[in-house]
Structure formats: C-alpha cells, structure tokens
Amino acid sequence: MGKKTIDTRLKSLLNADFEREGGDIGQPYLENRIFTNRTIKMSRIKAVGFDMDYTLAEYKQDALDQLTMKLALNLLVDRNGYSEEILKIPYKPGFTIRGLVIDTLTGNVLKMDKFRYVSLAYHGLRPLDSDRRAAMYNATRIDFHSGRYRSVDTLFELLETYLFAAIIDHVDQAEGPRDDYTELYRDIRNAIDTCHSDGSLKKQIMSDPDHYIKSDPMLIPALHKFREAGKRLFVVTNSEPDYTDFMLTYLFRNASPFFKGWRHCFDLVGSAARKPTFFNEGQPLEIIEDGDNLFFSGGNLDFLEERLRIKGDQVLYVGDHIYGDILKSKHSTHWRTCIIVPELEFQVRAEEEAKPFLMELLANETRRKQLTMELTWRRGQVYDLHQFKESEADELERNHLERIDERIEELDRQLEHHNRELSDLLFQSRDLRRRISNTFNSYWGRLFKTGGQLSNFAEQIRDYACIYTSAVSNFNFYNGQVYLESMVSPMPHEKNLYPVGDVNFDASLDGGRHPNELPLAEAVDLDPSSEEGIEEVEDRQEDLSTEESITSPAPG
Q: 409 burial class (0-12, 13-18, 19+ CB within 10 angstroms)?
C-alpha cells in the first residue's frame, strides 16, 4: 500500500465522525439506535440487501415534493384540463405523514389505529368533527377490498396525499363539495406516475443531485463495516438501470478509501425489480454487467438467492416500504427484515421536546382516573344511603335519619370538590394534548400512536419488521456480529401505573378545530419539517397499490 493511499485512509479515519442534522458532531443519539421487534443474531446473517430510494439514498423531502408538485400540477392543467388556478396552490410541508389512508370516494384523509378505528380525519385541509367522523366510519368496518381506499405507505406518497387534499380544498371553495372525488384522485395519481415514468422527475434529480439527495458521510463506512464483518451485500430496487447506476455512482463519489466505487461494494445489484412481484414470479431477466459484480434488470427471488448461494434467515433485507420491501419479503421468504424510518429522528426528538408536557399529562391522567373511581364510589354511597333511608323508614329513629343526612351532606361536599378538581384536570389535559400534538404534527399528532393506541403504521412495523432504524448509517454504532435482542412487551396489568404510551393526546380532542386556529400560546416552537395478518394486509395492499411497482424512482 503506497504512502498516498495510507495517508488518504488515515485522514478519512481520523476525520470520520458522526454528524447530526443541524450541525452537532461527536456522538450518537437515541434516534440513531436500532430498535428490535424480533431478536436477530447478526453473526448468523451472511448477506445484507438494500433497497435504494429512501434507504441508501435519502431524498430531501421538501425539495423532492416541490419538484413533483410542480410537474404534476402542470400535467393536470395541460393534459386533464384543470383550471390554471390550481398552479397557485402553495406547497405546505408537514400536512401528510405515513400510515394515513385516503378515502378516494369522499375526499377524506384518515388516520387509524391498529384496530382500524378512525381516530382523525380531514376533508381537504379541514378537520372533520368527531360526530361527522363517527357517522361516516364508526358504524361499519372499513372494507379495504373495495378499491375505495388508498394506503399512504411510502415517503413518495406524501406529496400525492397533500395534493389530493389541497385540490379538494380549492375545488370545494370554487364549485362546492362533490359526491365523488374518485376521478380527481385518479387524475392526481396518474399525473404523479407520469412524472416518474416519463423521466422528467429523474432528469431534474440527476441534473442537480445535491439539491435533492441528503448527504450522509456515515453511509459508506456502514457498508464497509458489513463487508469487514464478512457479509455479502446486494441491492434490489425498482428504479431503472440507468437511474440506479447514476444514483449509486453519486452515493459512492467520495467512497475512497473504503471502496473504489459501488461495483466494489455490492456483489449483486438488481434494478427494475418491480417489487413486490420480484419476491414471487418476478420479471424477465436481463444481465447488464457480469463479473465480480453482477448488475441485472428484472429477475426474481430464486435467481438472486441462487447467485448469492445464501437464502432464508441468513439474509437481512433493509428497505423503507412496509409492503413492497418488508411484508412481501417476509411472507415470500424467511429473510430477516429491517425497515428504514427516516421520520424516526424527528419523532424521537419531539418526544424529548414534549417530555415535560407528557409527564404533566401523565400525572393528570393518573389523578383523573383516581378521581373518577372515587366519584363512582362516593355516588354509590350516597345512592345506598338514600335507598336504605327509604326502604327502612319504618324502623329508623330521628337520630338515625339525622346521621344519614349528615353523611349524605358530607359526601355531597366531597363530590362537589372532586367534581371541580376533575373539571380543572380535564381542561388542563385538553390544553396539554394540544401542546403535545403540535410538538409532533399539528394535523396528525404522533406518527406511531393515535387515540392511546398504536397507529396502523406502527402496528405494521411491529408485526412485519424484525428491526427498524432511522438510517442505514446507524449500523456504524453496532458491531457486525451484534446480538440485537427484543424487549418483552408487558401485559397491561404489569405496567407501572398508567404509561405515557396509553395516554390519548391526539389533535382530534380539540373538538375538530383547524390547527391554524389554535391560539399562538399553545403552539410549540419546533420545526414541523396476530395475524389478522399477512394475508389480509396483502389483499388490502394489493387493492390499494396496484400501480406501486411502476413508480420510479420507486419505493422498494
């Protein structure tokens, strides 16, 4: 090894440090942990595979969304005849989070818990009040096989959801509400698909990748760490070969001295995979390059495992798409799974920011439950005394009746005092819920919780991802043979008092007020930037995501 190479590598190692978004340098944070649902012994993992978009390459969400919105709105005007007024619709970051469901018929966007109960809903950009929401969604179970509902599973779909809501807001104000918004949704969906498939979106990204792709100096060291631990590495992405080549070349532009380029990192790179079909029948195979590194298009799971000479639970697959990457791979293979959740960084920081409010709300809720139990008990005592006085009137003396009346009066005073305390607690808790909800997302609250339950998105991560983390680079903080041990979830009776996780502080509890209408004093100064099971979720997602695999750069 020449002196220049040694100096270069030494400089790289000396300067290798973790940089947190915002400029802080020097140490990992809680949001950089790998969280474990199902225990994994990394010493047993022989191959690690990756999706590309939003996994190896994380996009700058606002920049990508604004570009996509501009292209899609122009298509809606030029191709579908929409009014040019929609071109004036402003981009509003933060309206959409993953795990929502679009009701394409009514034009509503829904947030559901793990039991598919709709806890929050918006029509356009306006919240539905609790009575209307209950009338529309609580009487019957939502049928995901109807084709009416669309699940927001990927970060690419956030803009699509916002556009749907924003255009509904515009159309309703201009023309009045419609009975059916299905055609509008279909037009928006087709416009965004066209932006991906006609190359216009990719062309813009490739012309200025620094503007659209986040820089992660820890990515290449993480991949090198896997290789040093003896793991074979591969990529399976839905993106076309030319875009895959460009994007990997860009990600590895400063890879020296760890790798000469992406071809020296990955054993196999599969493009145009059309996941999730890749995990079953797949597509016609085309070999693009064959040598030490195999670069191919199409193919399927059997071909990949045959070339790797590794299969089953010796493979860990890392992706960002709960359906295309995680659920399907888990159902079709014995691969272990890791889902990348970039939003986790903000969610963990927001938990820290909201902790004082959370603790205060937790204390309020504990006291409220105690008061409720005591009020029930005291009211029961009053009732029993009245019943006793009436039923035993013939046997009671004057002094007996006076003692009963005195006790009833004493209990009534206690009830009045407790009632006033309860009213104060309820008002304080309502205010705290608003503050907490705004800390996370002023429209939807926490990503992983709703109504005191796990959100539908969180439940899917828990059920189908063995591990989850905010970025591939977080593997830098773990040994390549690390033992990732899951926690045993306690039963409700095993929990200490009333856990924060079960406290409901969704924005819906403000009575359906629009987030912008909340008093300024309530806003938190934070940048807002079992198995019911596999087969049912599969059927639902297949109904909702029939066009998923043609989107490129594609989720998966």
A: exposed
